[in-house]
Fold:
Amino acid sequence: MVHIPKLREDKVMKGLKSFLQYHILEPLKILASDKRALVGLSILVFYILMITVGRVLIPLDLTPHREKRYLGPSWEHPLGTDFAGRDILAQIIHGGRDVLPVAFLTGLVTVAIGTIIGIISGYVGGKLDLAITTFIDIFLTIPGFPLLMVVVVWLLQSGIPVNIFIIACVLSITAWAGLARSVRAQVLSIREEAFIEAAICLGLSRFHIVFNEILPNIMPYIAINFMLSSVSAIYSYTGLQALGLIPYEPGTWGAMICMAQAYVGTITGAGCWYVLAPAITIIVLQVGLVFLSQGIDKIFNPRLRER
Structure:
């Protein structure tokens, strides 16, 4: 009796060590061994620090200063000033406060919808599979961004409050269909494997088969689609802001692009930094997420690590 607590403590410690080894340290080693994934992770960490710590260190002043209009890069203004003489760097730092949350929340909503529909379609099969596949094909043929514009305008005219979660759901309105198709195809293939037949013969529940046998095998598709959906959401979110279709605060990346189109118009001349700064910021973030997605693919796909 005296040794039971110690045995339990040793078991808990072994479990923690195993969790740290296989779920934290091992993925970090894989990312560190891939130069592109490491670059992507560094970019993502930099952006997170920029919109959290950077907002504290560099305040945002939107007061117009006409005498400082369209200044070039300098020590006082590293990225120059805009049409109103306001610092562009401060707007870049503060303008990303909603972009990453919307992007990752859109990725989660897209992955959740696509995975659930794809698993149901592939595992159940029959007439339900035919109906769901037809439904997916319809969404695959719908142009994504024009539909987003129509839905957003309808929401604003209906008086529905537009928050981050509503925006994420709207951005996911067609993005889930591609993942659902891929998940369905994988589930159809995995369903015929011997270990699934063995699990059915053992009388294991569908819940166990789906979450313990099928879901781990399709995690690479889910992880990659999460990152790619986040990348696509950044384009869509800033694009809707640039077109003035969703409410935004001054100083956001979409607002900067909108104002740059209105007051500058081109990437040449005195106001070129005001046009290029938000565009390059968005492009670098998306490149970082794409690089990181390749490293995540290696974490879930041992064949890529062998190559």
